[in-house]
Amino acid sequence: MQEVNKNITYTFDELKEVLEELEMILISLHKMGSYYGEKFHTYGEEMYRGEYEKETTRFIDEWRVCEKLAKVRSILSDRFDRTLGEDYMDDLEREMDEIRYWSKPGDML
């Protein structure tokens, strides 16, 4: 790893923006989980599972959660030096190389 990438500094405003986006997403998902968790406990999960899944999807789509997470990723990654190494990857790419991602059912993870 390049020395310049070992200590990255952000402004207060950058970190505030990141934390606001993450807080909104996390607390919203927590509130949905608590709301539907109570319904699952009281009335049975099978009664509300579809509603919970639909509401979660609606939240992700209507509140543009993917766009917000992409903005957070951009703020955090923009400060890295992106010089390519001998493996034609930069430090950040190299560090992210082992992340597991969702795949469709039946695909290898």
Automatic annotation (TrEMBL):
Name assigned to this protein: Uncharacterized protein
Domain of life: Bacteria
